[in-house]
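Supplementary Text 2. Reproducibility record for the structural model of the 147-residue chain.

All settings were left at their defaults, and a single model was retained for analysis rather than an ensemble. We include the record here because the model underlies the residue-level annotations in Supplementary Table 4.
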Amino acid sequence: MDLTGIGSVMNFAKGLIDRVFPPDMSAEDKAKAVLAAQELVEAREKAVIEAQKAIIVAELEQGDAYTKRARPTVVYMGLFFIFLVHVAFPIVKGWSGQPIPDLALPEAFWWAWSGVVGAWVIGRSAEKRGSKSDAVKAITGKSAAKQ
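Retained model, structure tokens:
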């Protein structure tokens, strides 16, 4: 399992070289081309990460306090939807005896909600242990002035 992503970048670059350059190309030239392609792909990935970082920093630096509370809101609204679909509606269905359609939260909800909750819980746990890193500040929405 490639946790760093380097293997996938290398495989992508090698696959690209194998498709683009002729099969009779020397191994040395292919190696150079793979290295150049890897550098380009890594530069693109760094640019994407930097852009995402800039967006997150801009959101956290704005004056709107709600943006900083958005993660807890997503957590609580997700819990509310889970309660409705898996507790409230089945109880109403049982009491009323009326046919109420079975509802299910989509798989995309579970992936998105669990990702937000996981990041928020990890960040809050680190914050409560006294961590003051930039990553924890980004996750919890705390500014340096408030800490």
